[in-house]
Request: fold
Amino acid sequence: STSSTTPAFLEAVSPRLAVISCGKNNDFGHPHKETLKLLESEGIEYRRTDVSHTVTVYSDGKDIFVKE
Reply:
C-alpha cells in the first residue's frame, strides 16, 4: 500500500530486492503506483506475485538470486 514503504523505511533497511505479494486485480489495488515509483526511484529491484506467481529468493550467503 502507499503507507507500507516509506523513504525512511527503505533507508533503514537498504533492501536490494522487494517481493510484493498480491493477487491479480485485488480489491485493494495493490501494489499502489506510488510504492512502485518509490522502489524504482531508489533503484530497488522488485518482483510481484500477481505477475510472476511464484517467486523464490535464495542466497549463497553473499548474493541473492530470484527464481520465477
Observations:
- The CA atoms of residues 2 and 42 lie 15 Å apart.
- The mean pLDDT is 92.
